[in-house]
Amino acid sequence: MNTFKQLLKQPTTKAGIIIALVFQIVFFCVWLTAYDGVQERITELDVALVNEDTEAGMMIADQIEQNLPLTIDTTLTEAEAEEALQERTIQMIVHIPNDFTEKLSSDEKAEITYSINQASATVGKQALEQIATKLTTTINEQVAAQQLAMGGEQFVSQLSDSGLPEQAVTTIQEQLSATLDQVDLAPITADINRVNETEGFAATMIPMMLVLASFVGSMTMNMQIQVSVMGLARKGLNKWSVFWSRQLLNVLVSAGLAFLTYGLIAIFDISVTLPFWTVWFYQFLVFLSFLLVSQTFLILLGPAGMMGNIVLLSMQLVTSGVIVPVAMLSPFYQTISSILPATYAADGYFTVIFGGTGVTQEFLPLLMIMAVVLIISVGRVALQKHPEHQKALIQPSK
User: Fold this and answer.
1) Helices (H), the chain
2) Is domain 45-195 in CATH 3.40.1710, yes or no?
3) Structure confidence by residue, pLDDT tens digits, 140-163
4) What is the pTM of this model?
């Protein structure tokens, strides 16, 4: 029992218990508040409606606008919509072809194409497919009912004016009713086009896995590096020499991790859609941004910075768009998403694994985030005038 008491008195034991409690509290608070009301915000998903049919397609387009519970843009051409889908500025294209009326009035099936980008959050993709299927069913019911009503009413009117005996009219009407019951009640089919689809469930998990592993690895590495910094501070080494050596280490480790990650992707036979050096440099920027962001909290707050990194981990997983599309989050979390590196890491990994327009558009945001946190870290180090002050920041309180 005495040993147990001694164990509890250790500062590291207390820190471990506190971290475990903080993990639970932070994840509950962040995840439950971030995902509260997500289903209601499905209307925030952006869809392009492209109608090339000037007859029945106009009526169907109106019905789609009335029944589709999403944000609809009807101003884009097919080419513009496809480009926007690749860039993930919209989540789906609803396309009515120019031969829609012709097929609807013939024995052929008319078709509405729903193009959904698979390089996006799983929740969003599944929701859009369900909406597309349900919408087509609704349109079929309305179109079939209109066709039956129009055809039946017109024939009955002509029949009544024909002068035939009432009994004959009744018999014909009964036969007509039986015939109409056999009419195709689903004249329109839904063609769900899964753009940038990749095979294998494992591939779909890579964006979330890499974001999670990269940031947790960065947090853990920086905790250990902080201990090393404490040791160097005791030796009285120049604070700037220590700081810039730490940044050089961050660069070298990020370069090595980028090679390692690409190698692991190749070993597990995961196809990538971009050239080797593009993928490598992108991964290098992601790892380096995570290291610089996570080290900033430790430089600012010392050991207490670990709590900040725990909050940041939860925030990034929620707002990165790997689980739920960013558009379905509340405005507060959408703002948070725009300033965290995991958002741009997830977007890039979706492109690397599934396909898209490239990852170069993610470079600038990552570089800007790194520049901001590096400036903050430099400012904090500049305020540390004496090695003793630096040690006080990084040593746990007794």
Assistant:
1) 2-9, 11-34, 56-67, 78-86, 100-104, 122-160, 166-180, 201-234, 239-267, 276-301, 305-319, 331-338, 341-354, 360-382, 387-394
2) yes
3) 877 766 655 554 444 445 445 544
4) 0.79
